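Project channel, design review

CF: Before we commit to the Gilvimarinus gilvus constructs, I'd like one complete example in the thread so the newer folks can see what an input/output pair looks like. Taking UPF0260 protein SCD92_02225.
RD: sounds good, go ahead.
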Amino acid sequence: MADQVFWQRKSLAQMTSQEWESLCDGCGKCCLHKLENEDTDEVFYTDVACQLLDHDNCRCQDYPNRRARVADCLVLTPEDAEYFHWLPVTCAYRLIAAGEALPDWHPLLTGDPNSTHKAGMSVAGKVLAEESVATDDLEEHIIHWVI
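CF: and here is what came back for UPF0260 protein SCD92_02225:
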């Protein structure tokens, strides 16, 4: 057990805040506007990004204050794991909560903080600023990438 990495030997609730934060691969997919079918709970991603997402490095430009600046920004916690169905299928939070392995391109496995971008798994250079799209037009921006 001592040779297992923290995400294999700890539950999400047992992780330190530093371990929890390190699970984020920096893909930026969770910061895309999403639409949900109320009948089926199916989530559809758009190519429209939150106003705080840096489109190049896929990180929040004001992470400590994001919740105060963006009213519908969700702060993930281990207690919310049962609701992680809306996160991308490649998201470490969702994968670990389901008892699955991290993808081989994840920075925790590669040691390279840019491995998500190099693997083409981030939204870098693929998204629009939310200011450029009317809320009523979001359906026209649904994407069909691997999310």
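RD: helpful, thanks. Residues 17-22 form the longest helix (6 residues).
CF: The CA atoms of residues 47 and 126 lie 7 Å apart.
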